[in-house]
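[agent] plan:
  1. take the single chain provided in the ticket
  2. run structure prediction with default settings
  3. attach structure tokens to the ticket
  4. add a short note for the reviewer (M.T.)
[agent] executing step 1
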Amino acid sequence: MYTKNILPYYFLVLLVGLTACADIIETDISAERVELVTPMNDLVTNTRVQNFRWKALEGADYYKVIVVSPSFDSTLRYEIERRVSGVQFDTSITPGTYEWTVVGMNDAYTSDQNTRRFTILDDSTLNLAQQVVNLVSPAEGTVLSDTVVSFLWQAVANASEYKLQIASPDFTNSSFMVVNQNLTDDFYTTNLAPGSYKWRVRAENDISVSPYAVGNFTINLVTNLEAPALIAPVNFATVNLPVNLAWTADGNSVRDTLYIYTDVNLTNEVLKVAVVNTTYVFNDNANTVYYWRLRSVAADGSLSAYSETRQFLVP
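[agent] step 2 finished; step 3 output follows
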């Protein structure tokens, strides 16, 4: 009788204790402030690329950079609100007056905030050399599961067009280039094969160009390949050398991997070979029982399940 009443009580105490411990793990940073480094307060410049820097705050797991115009007291628009894991963030900002802050955050607390003010003047020279194109999508390191890819970047003031280049796997050789386009829009959609890519965009006008902004992404299709189906020799067959192996494979495969072993546990591998056809001539030792199986490989590197395992005897 007492056991039935007391155990739920202990479980409740334990649950409350664990919850309290979870709160204690996070450092209370609500009264702390992130120390801002650059841009300096009341900066006036015609350089649109701003390098936001701050010092790490103990207890913060990540930071939020917030830039508003014209001020936090009379905000007309949020220019930037970005989560950042490190202590720096670079971006290009249009002319105007701004205030900015960085707050430290963890799963339980948000720090207090310092604010600074800066002004970016309109550069009448139209020089893009100090501008930066902000790449929007695909985001850095994205893995896509579709071959139709849409590229988007932020428009740059005074730019008349943009140069978009896409290469696979990178830009170390001109033969890797798959797209090289001049565009008046700040977006582009194309169809690409599975693989690893780098892309870059720069702004251009009649008198100048900006530096390239570079990103990378991967296209990795999820292909559900059927496992190969073994044809010959039949299971438990006795055959003479050389042995003609045959099978069928999924039409979406680009090659098959053939495995041959000399033990039923498939640990003593005597052959592993990539085959682009669906036949293979095997010639090894006589007086041996062999076990064989296959699996298929798609263009994006995804694998099928293994086929059944068959055995044959070479007398």
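[agent] step 4 note for reviewer: The radius of gyration is 31 Å.
[agent] ticket updated
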